[in-house]
Amino acid sequence: MIQYTYIRYCHKAGHRVIPERIKQMVSIPHHRMVPVFLVLTDVFSIDDEALAEFRAVFRSIVREVRAELGHL
After folding, report:
1. Parallel/antiparallel/unpaired status of strands 7-12 and 36-41
2. What does the pLDDT profile of the chain (72 residues) look like in tens digits?
């Protein structure tokens, strides 16, 4: 069995975000107590408004995944 030290998910700014899919991808390692880092790349390719929307979506995903484990 592979033991991961951490998982890093990189998402390119400007690409479509599918919150349920990202939540599914990061939930499994998080439930196994493996640290998960969500990284938004190429942030200078979008305007400030779009960046704020991306950050809000990713914050929401983090809150939902943490809430499932009772980490609020």
Report:
1. parallel
2. 677 788 899 999 889 889 999 999 889 888 888 899 999 999 999 999 999 999 999 999 999 988 887 754
